[in-house]
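Extended Data, panel c. Modelled sequence:
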Amino acid sequence: MTADLNQLYHENECKLIRKHGFHHVRFQQVGTGAAATASAIATVVVGLTAALPELEAACGQRLVLLKSVRSNKSQFEIVDPVVNPPPYWPGRGQPGKPSARQTPRQRGKTPTESPRHPR
């Protein structure tokens, strides 16, 4: 596996990869810093998870280019609970008053057995 997208264009390296017959996996890392590193790690984890079963079933050598997982605003959602409180937020609708919705119970336990209400 390599982040060198041009490795297969280097004649000597390409000949060695072909000669030995092993799969070749590459991915692109764009930029520097924490976001670029996170993107590269996510690309490898997600890409290999999908590609490995295909490679295990392959009859012969395969060349793989993992598509980048990008770190951008489509990856998360931010809510200001003062401006737009979600339904589960305590005091939703009226500052200082507890929410009518209770904390979900742990599966199979009564309220007296929950961590908030030790016996």
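The longest strand covers residues 24-27. This feature is highlighted in the accompanying rendering.
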